[in-house]
Amino acid sequence: MRILFTGGSGKAGKHAIAHLLEQGHRVTNADLMPLDLPGVDSLRVDLTDAGQVFNALHAYAGFDELESGTGVPSYDAVVHFAAIPCILIRPDNETYRINTLSTYNVLDAAVKLGIRKVIFASSETTYGICFADGDKKPDYIPIDEDHPTIPQDSYAMSKVVNEITARSFQARSGFDIYGLRINNVIEPHEYATNFPAFLDQPELRRRNIFAYIDARDLGHMVDCCLKTDGLGYEVFNVSNDDLSVGISNQAVIERFYRGVPQKRDMGPNETFYANNKAKRLVGFAPQHSWRDVL
Q: Any transmembrane segments, and where (predicted)?
C-alpha cells in the first residue's frame, strides 16, 4: 500500500514505519522532523495548516513517481500518529488545539480526497486514569473499549474529541476509520533500562493500568488494521498480553484495585488493559514481552 504516516519521527511512529516497510508498504512520513530511516519518504508538514495537509495527501512521494507520466498517484491509507504526546510539554490549551485541529485536518482531507482507510492514534489516557489528579481507579477491570472515557486533562480530552470527530467523518463517508487506544509504548531497549524499577516498585505502573505495548507490536497492529476492511468506525485497545509488573494479577488487585468490580475471570499475568477486541476483529497477535528480556 501507499501510505501517508503522520508523526513517524516520534517514539511510536518510527517503529511502526519500520514494520510497515518490512511488510512491503511504501511510506511517506509527514512530520516537522525528518526520519532517518532507509526506504521512507519524508515530507515536512504542519498538520494544523489545512492547506498543507491537503497538499501533502495529493503529492508525489519521491522523484521516481514522476517517471510513469500518469500524474500524482493516490494514497491508499493514512496513519495519523502526530500529536503533542503528553501533558506538561506545551500549555494545556495549545496541546488541545494542536491535537484536535491536526486530526480534523487529516480526516477532512482524507475523506474529501477519497482515501478510504484512516488509522489514528488515540490513547489509554481517554479512560481518565493516566493523568488524573490523585488516585483514580477504573470503573471495572479489565478495562475494555466500553469503559467510560471522561478524562480531566487536556491531552486526553483532545483524544476523546478526536474519536468523536473520526466517528462523524466515518458516518459522512462510509470509509474505514479505526482508532487505536495505545497504551504506554515501550521500545525494546527500555526493558533493560526501565523495567527493573517496575519490578521493584509496581506502583510506578498504576497510571498506565499496569499495562504496556511493545513498539514493534504496535507496528504489527497498524498493519493488521491496514489489512482489515469493512469495519467502518472502530476503536481498539492496544496492549501486550501481560502485566508490566512482576507481581501477579491477584496481587495487583489486592494492593491497588481492592473493591473494583471484576467483569470476568483473568489469567495470573493477564493485562488489565483488555486487547480481546483487537485480536477478534483485526487479528492482532502481540509477540513481545519484557519477560523475554528480564
A: none
pTM higher than 0.85, yes or no? yes
Beta bridge partners of 26: 2
Residue by residue, pLDDT tens for the chain (294 residues) are 999 999 999 999 999 999 999 999 999 999 999 999 999 999 999 999 999 999 999 999 999 999 999 999 999 999 999 999 999 999 999 999 999 999 999 999 999 999 999 999 999 999 999 999 999 999 999 999 999 999 999 999 999 999 999 999 999 999 999 999 999 999 999 999 999 999 999 999 999 999 999 999 999 999 999 999 999 999 999 999 999 999 999 999 999 999 999 999 999 999 999 999 999 999 999 999 999 999
Residues facing 27 on adjacent strands: 3
Q: Can you tell me whether residue 122 is helix, strand or coil?
A: strand
If 0-12 CB within 10 Å is exposed, 13-18 middle and 19+ buried, where does residue 254 land?
exposed
Q: Taking the chain, what is the end-to-end CA distance rounded to the nearest angstrom? A: 37
Give the helix/strand (H/E) hosting 31.
strand 26-31
Domain assignment present for residue 107? The answer is yes
User: Is 251 inside a domain boundary?
Assistant: no
CB neighbour list of residue 18: distance below 8 Å, 6 or more residues apart:
37, 219
The answer to whether residue 207 sits within a structural domain is no
How far apart CA 213 and CA 272 sit, in angstroms, is: 12
Q: Sheet harboring 41-44: ordered strands across? A: 41-44, 26-31, 2-6, 77-80, 117-123, 176-182, 233-238
Longest alpha-carbon distance in the chain:
66
Identify residue 103 by its one-letter amino acid code.
Answer: T
**C-alpha cell of residue 228:** 482489515
Cβ distance 175 to 111 under 8 Å? yes
Residue-range definition of the domain harbouring residue 106: 2-189+213-242+273-288
- CATH no. for residue 147? 3.40.50.720
Per the structure, the count of domains in the chain is 1
